[in-house]
Every structure is written in structure tokens, then in C-alpha cells.
Amino acid sequence: MTTLSPEILTQLAGQGIELPSWAFGNSGTRFRVFATPGTPRDPFEKIADAAQVNRYTALAPSVALHIPWDKVDDYATLRAHAEDLGVELGTVNSNTFQDEDYKFGALTHHDESIRRKAIDHHFECIDIMHATGSRDLKIWLAEGSNYPGQNDMRARQDRLQDSLQQIYARLGDAQRLVLEYKFFEPSFYHTDVPDWGTSYAQVAALGDKAMVCLDTGHHAPGTNIEFIVMQLLRLGKLGSFDFNSRFYADDDLIVGAADPFQLFRILFEVVRGGGLNNPDVAFMLDQCHNIEDKVPGQIRSVLNVQEMTARALLVDRAALDAAQQANDVLGANAVLMDAFYTDVRPALAEWRVSRGLPADPMAAYAASGYQQQIAADRVGGTQAGWGA
Ligand code: AOS
Ligand code: ZN
Ligand code: ZN
């Protein structure tokens, strides 16, 4: 069995992956949303489910909120509820994609009253962050156009910068803004923040508290995502990850499910670039569990990140460097592949047990009866869901 050194285990012990509250709600495609028995009916129940993931893995100490989906009357109570369950409230995600007013844009809109409304929504999110103790405001903009000529793309960039400046000025000293990019959808011709370069240009003009959010599902097929990771770390602007995986577009599938090798390559660049357990680089999941149970879906996800992190840490950096210096093409590649092909699961299971965790968190959760309990308890009311 492969053993993991004390240094590697120390690094793994420091790993925390934030869970998205919306992963516990029902979601689906534009064709159908299938309900899962036991789905939370409110933010309190979403947090209770997220705490289960942390309970069996010790990998998920915080939960990201989404406003308005997770709006409550009293955020202090929600915060206390989370802390009672051993988790924290994390990133606050704004939403400018479900309001009729935002049909043609929000932070980029040429109508000043609509743009004002969108900026004010972000002010509200910042107020909530103060109450929840959250550090990060995550902005993903569903803005763009469907037809050439529909919009003045440049003017929209200028208005976006002005909007972001107003939001940035409102941040507290310890708060940050992370700007997510996505190359298409819901718009299909142009998107106002389509790529890391645009996000970088926009946040660099704001200041140190503004960073780029990299969602692994938001690139054209074939994109070398680990190169972008490397570059943003090099520039000191990688603020956060939205981890998920995809076969086609923004599939939001379990991270590491579609392409474990890509996840390994990304995590290797994170390690290489000093991004692991670096408070500047938040690890988050952005996933939806359309047909599978949500809590075990999230447990599987954080375990996949942990396993690939362990493999990335196993790369023999000295050997890799020597092979690279010698222009040993195949030798260098072999160093990387050796680590990737190493099965770390038995060593991780043994380590978990030594920390009082279950060897197999998936099996322990399945045996706990929690899933059956929530299915029985949470009947009636409206199940929370994407868009609810
Ligand atoms: C949308 O495609 C983005 O990935 C967002 O990060 C996220 O899915 C959305 O903000 C959920 O609230
Ligand atoms: Zn995302
Ligand atoms: Zn997405």
C-alpha cells in the first residue's frame, strides 16, 4: 500500500472545501427538475445536510449561500445554527439572472435604474456578509447578447467596471469580491465576462480585494485549464475555484467524475503555485445533483478533491525538475503519471480512521439512516430548488 508522508498528511489535514447550499436543493435541466425525497425546505435544512458532509469527511467546514435563494429574516440565527452543527457560513453569491428587469443586462445595463437595482442587490449581499461573517462576495453575471450588433460590447465593459467599482468600494476591510467568468450561457453570441482575461482585467482595475473565480466547467472544450490556474496564481489573482466536471458544457457534475486526470493536473498546478491551503485561494464546489442523492453526491465530491490533492502532493518535484532541466520529455511525463496512477484510497482510509473518521465516508453515511430520516421528515412544504 502506498503510504503518505507526515508532510503530505499535514497538508491534507488543512484542506477545506466549501459546499454550495444549492447543491442540496432540487435542480435539473431545462427539460425537467426531478425531486429527491428529503430535499431541504429552507436554508436551515440545507445547512444541516451540508454539516453531514463535514461530519463524515472533515473536509467541508463551510457552506456558500445564494441570495435570494437563502434569504432569511435573521442571519444571526442562521449563523448560530451553522455553528451549532460545526460549520460556518461562507461565500455569498449574488443573483442577477432571475429578475425580469435583467433580461438585457444588470451590472452592464444601459438603463441606469436597472443598473442601480443590480448594484443595490450587491450592497444587500455585502450587508448579509457582515451578518453571516462571510468574507467573499461571488459575482457571476448572466449578461451578454444573442446576436451580433445587439449590444455595444465596449460600452458594457465600461459600465461593468463602474458597477464593480461601486460594489468594491462598499466592501469591508476583510471582505473580497470574486468575479466568475463563463464563456457562454445564458447568452450565446457574446458574454460580458467570458474568460479569465476579462475577469482579470476587470478585477485588476479594482484593487487587491478583487480576485478571479475559476469555475472548472466554464471553458471551451479542450481548454488547458491548469495553464489558467498557473497564470492566475502567478499573478496573485486566483481568488477561488468552483469545482465541478463536465462532459459537454456547464454540466455541473461531480468534480473529478468526468475527467479525473484534468482534476489532478489542476491540483498539481495549485500545489506548484502555492495555492494549496492558501487563504487567498478558496476551494468551493459548484455542482447540482439532478438525479442522485445530494448529501452522498457532495461526500463523493469532496473525497474526489482530497484524493486528487493527495496524488498531486505525491509528485516527486525534485525528479520532475531534474527531468525538465535535462529535457527528458518522457522522463518528466513519467514522474507526473506515476503520481497520477497511484491509488491513495487505502492510505486515506487508514488515515481517516486514525483521526476518528470513518474509513469509508460514503458507506458510513449510507448506514447512518440520515437519508431515510430526512425523506420521512421533510414531507410537505416546498422543497428548495435551483431558482426557488
Ligand atoms: C453559473 O453558471 C455559475 O457557475 C455560478 O457560479 C453558479 O452556478 C450560480 O451562481 C449558482 O448560484
Ligand atoms: Zn460557478
Ligand atoms: Zn456554472
Automatic annotation (TrEMBL):
Q: List the SUPFAM superfamilies.
A: Xylose isomerase-like (SSF51658)
Output one GO BP term: rhamnose catabolic process
Q: Keywords, A to Z?
A: Isomerase, Manganese, Metal-binding
Asked whether the UniProt record includes Manganese among its keywords, one would answer yes
Q: Which domain of life is it from?
A: Bacteria
The EC number(s) this enzyme carries: 5.3.1.-, 5.3.1.14
What InterPro entries is this protein classified in?
A: L-rhamnose_isomerase, Rhamnose_iso-rel, Xyl_isomerase-like_sf
Q: Which GO terms describe its molecular function?
A: L-rhamnose isomerase activity; metal ion binding
Q: Which NCBIfam families match?
A: RhaI_grampos (TIGR02635)
Q: Please report the name of this protein according to its UniProt entry.
A: L-rhamnose isomerase/sugar isomerase
